[in-house]
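Anyone have tokens for Rieske 2Fe-2S iron-sulfur protein? Sequence:
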Amino acid sequence: MRIDTPAGSILCDPWVNPAYFASWFPFPDNSLLDWETLGQVDYLYLSHLHRDHFDAAHLKRFVSKKARVLLPEYPTSELEDELRELGFTDFVKTVSEEVIELDGGLKVMIQALTSPTDGPIGDSSLWVEYDGVRLLNQNDARPTDLSLFASLGHVHAHMLQFSGAIWYPMVYELPQAAKTAFGKQKRDRQFDRTWRYIDDLKASHVFPIAGPPCFLDDELWQFNDIFGDEGNIFPDQSVFMKEYAKVGGTNGVVLLPGSVTEITQDSIETTHPTDVDEFFANKVAHLEEMRERKRPIIAAEKASWRHPEIDVLKEMKRRIEPLLDESIYLAKGVGGPVRFDLVGYDGDSVESIVVDFPGQEVRRYADEKVRYRFRTERALIEHLLFIDEVDWVNSLFLSCRFSAARIGQYNEFVYAFFKCLSEERLQYAEGWYDEHQRATDAEDITLGDWVVQRRCPHLKADLTRFGIVDGDQLTCQLHGWRFDLPSGRCLTGVGHQIRARRAGEPAPDANPEGDAPATAATPA
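Reply: yep, here.
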């Protein structure tokens, strides 16, 4: 998205090239736009480092290095470092949630989210105001609420995510009926979260952006939402408009590559390069044409992945074992061995490697039971090791080029660890969990027949806004986490206990023995 005002232009998250082992492509296709012109901007904003937002090749080739970078306040310098490597030198280092005025009366504010589970160590939203017209580019950030933005004045344009951006449940080795059921639950939660954000901000106009990707490799084609599968988590903008209408939404605006919206405090006018309804009615044909056009790109990427000279076990030991030795919260949170089954070049042979968190070592599989198992091509792991990738979530897992199986609940610590394969990231994540799991959440609220702590144990969402009680279960709609209220046990993942009691029952004595606070979630 490019924002043009008389005081300057801001280019936001220009993603054009395939991401995640050539699995994700932007849809509709934007590669044929006049990027030589579009890249001549005053300001550049990258919300975070996910590769469907941070397109290094495109930034290097097409975006003016004279652009001032609006930099979110993140705990690590990775985003700035990568931009400097691409040739950008002028940075506006924002302070999270503080409005700054740029040249010509253009005002901006960036809200940076810094949990280890927000993007690759950070995600953000951009608020812009010029001459009384306000825009929020929420993108795919998930703030606990939007009250801060609403407090700055009525917002006229709200851009936000509505579609899936994950590998669950498609890659899990489950019966198709179960995948469909889990996928439908996730699809419904995605829309519920979107409606909640829209209702929070009450903007004049809502723009569905930040999704979905399309999958053009024949091996991944089934992930496109073109088969009438109610469990597909990648609904497109046309589906958004239909679902939005069901909940009374009338102010949605769909943009195609090349669409232009002119917005004032009182009016909106949008022009499109082609008819929007007709475009989505012919979605399959557009995808098939894109697939043929992009085949050489996918083939060239695949040819670059094999590195037979790399001893995978040796390199994984060298990279991962020092981090296992330093990890406390993440290692305890994982709580057991994680197995990687690596399929050889012949498509049949398999080498199994275990990351043993309790034993703090990487070794060959020894026929023990594991709670998490991943199966993927050996070449993909070779490539990650070859390029010294520190974030296997923002590469292998988002590619969907693997299958997975697990025993028990979802474990966020598995993915937090494999997102943090550098000392800088690991130390930040360890510190974050240490701080947040020691924090006491003293405020209680009443939901239905239950008194519960106000903040969700997962990522501190305000349960007065996101909490739904059904019988003895509470669901936090921000991320879909569920809790059994009589026991306080989390039903979605390990490591998150909620404080709850039936309304009318006396509150237990707070910390009577001087032990850990009642609300402190233990990681395992």
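Residues 510-524 have pLDDT under 50 and may be disordered.
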